[in-house]
Amino acid sequence: MPERIDFPALLAGHTVVIEMINSGDAGLPVLTQLLRVAQPALGATGMAFVEFGPTGGRVISATGAAEWALGRPLAADDPDTVCLLAGPRVRQVRVDHLNGKLAGELSGSDLHWMVVSRAEIGGHIVGSMHALYSDDDEPGPDQQAVIGYLASCVAHMYGDQSGLPVHGDGPVVAALADGLAVVDRDGHVRLWNPAAAQVTGRSVEQALSAPLPFPLPPSGQVRDHRMPDGRWLRITSGELPGPGTLRVVTFRDITDQQRRDHDRELFVAVTSHELRTPVTVIKGYADTLTDHWESLTEVDRRQAARVIGQRANELARLVDRLLSSAAETGPGDDPATPFDLGEALRSAVGDLPADLRRRLVLLLPTDLPKALGHRPSLATVLTELTTNAGKYSAPDSPIEITASVDGQLVAFRVSDRGIGIRPEHVERAFDRFWQGESGDRRGYPGAGLGLYLVRRIVEQQNGWVSLRPRTGGGTVAEVRLPRG
């Protein structure tokens, strides 16, 4: 059995977490700090938290021996996911009793026991807390009790929606059907169906006899309203027949539709902005060659042709990104095959632009095993990761490409010494069109599509990709693929 829990250290560390929350911190930084506090106090080898949405889960925070799993998706129908989310809220299992891919990955990392607790709000699962042990000795009931308590603490953070959930809107407020309410002449709720509670997150007890949590449109009209948590509702109302002055109100969540509309507008804006620069430069140099050919020196002509070629290559890469993003293309139905990861990385490096290639430092082991996936797409993945590293670091700083094997997985990393990434941005960076702080688009041009494409390509090969701050400054992007 693991050593006794260090309760004084756990309380002291938890106090630090609460002080972080009281100081305005939220989301992933607080969650990760909670795991860092709990791991040594529990005597665990590693800790992890999985966030669940309607389509499955993803490891959004991890420490210790579980850090390799950061960013790993868990399909909703995966046997391990089904097993861990069934039965008692808090339980412990032997890793070798699991039946899915996760079991092989954990055992390959020498982890034998898992204590897991679901984080729930009103019967909805928002995530699960995991403590992992490499010892063959079975954890005790004290470990289960503490993990259950910590999962409840995280569930409370989700209830406050302070930086959580990380992905999408989460299952707590997911709309299953249109909400229906009946209000009186004073605008107070007289009827509130279950779907209304589902859409708004306001229970029947909270809603009855209280004002609507959104403005009431005039009878027969439709209004789109943004809720404080950022979701959009489409609301309609009408007079209810009868002697009273009751009104019936229907509403549904249109956040996804609004997001698609926003993405479409942003796509047009970003495309026009990003295409304009290379096109302007190409046209300018082409006009110069046409209008002043005789007066230009041979050196000037060659320089103009070189710039036109460079800008044309940039334009081609940008068009490929935009088309891939719009068409949702990737490896497609091509079957995964074993390939030499080291050789594929060296080959992909050779196709990179010269100014980026000269900064790269390859540190690849000679005995690196084969990976299982789609070799041609690796060039796109490496191009995007190294381009991203180069954009956010000094022009003369090195960019390291390393690789290793970890149990049933083979991984490679792209590490820079640039401005780094804030912990709360490590997941948002994979969103389409997202580019850090609002000023980043001006200081670091780009369409915000590279990491989005990388995650989609890698996950179609049953792998996953994650970002983390680099010790000493900078960012580490890590791609993990199944061994071939």
From TrEMBL:
<keyword id="KW-0472">Membrane</keyword>
<protein>
    <recommendedName>
        <fullName>Sensor-like histidine kinase SenX3</fullName>
        <ecNumber>2.7.13.3</ecNumber>
    </recommendedName>
</protein>
<keyword id="KW-0067">ATP-binding</keyword>
<dbReference type="InterPro" id="IPR000014">
    <property type="entry name" value="PAS"/>
</dbReference>
<feature type="domain" description="PAS">
    <location>
        <begin position="172"/>
        <end position="209"/>
    </location>
</feature>
<dbReference type="InterPro" id="IPR013656">
    <property type="entry name" value="PAS_4"/>
</dbReference>
<feature type="domain" description="Histidine kinase">
    <location>
        <begin position="270"/>
        <end position="484"/>
    </location>
</feature>
<dbReference type="InterPro" id="IPR036890">
    <property type="entry name" value="HATPase_C_sf"/>
</dbReference>
<keyword id="KW-0902">Two-component regulatory system</keyword>
<dbReference type="InterPro" id="IPR003594">
    <property type="entry name" value="HATPase_dom"/>
</dbReference>
<dbReference type="Pfam" id="PF02518">
    <property type="entry name" value="HATPase_c"/>
</dbReference>
<keyword id="KW-0597">Phosphoprotein</keyword>
<dbReference type="InterPro" id="IPR003661">
    <property type="entry name" value="HisK_dim/P_dom"/>
</dbReference>
<dbReference type="InterPro" id="IPR036097">
    <property type="entry name" value="HisK_dim/P_sf"/>
</dbReference>
<keyword id="KW-0547">Nucleotide-binding</keyword>
<keyword id="KW-0418">Kinase</keyword>
<keyword id="KW-0812">Transmembrane</keyword>
<dbReference type="InterPro" id="IPR050351">
    <property type="entry name" value="BphY/WalK/GraS-like"/>
</dbReference>
<dbReference type="InterPro" id="IPR035965">
    <property type="entry name" value="PAS-like_dom_sf"/>
</dbReference>
<dbReference type="Pfam" id="PF00512">
    <property type="entry name" value="HisKA"/>
</dbReference>
<keyword id="KW-1133">Transmembrane helix</keyword>
<dbReference type="Pfam" id="PF08448">
    <property type="entry name" value="PAS_4"/>
</dbReference>
<keyword id="KW-0808">Transferase</keyword>
<dbReference type="InterPro" id="IPR005467">
    <property type="entry name" value="His_kinase_dom"/>
</dbReference>
<dbReference type="InterPro" id="IPR004358">
    <property type="entry name" value="Sig_transdc_His_kin-like_C"/>
</dbReference>
<dbReference type="GO" id="GO:0016301">
    <property type="term" value="F:kinase activity"/>
</dbReference>
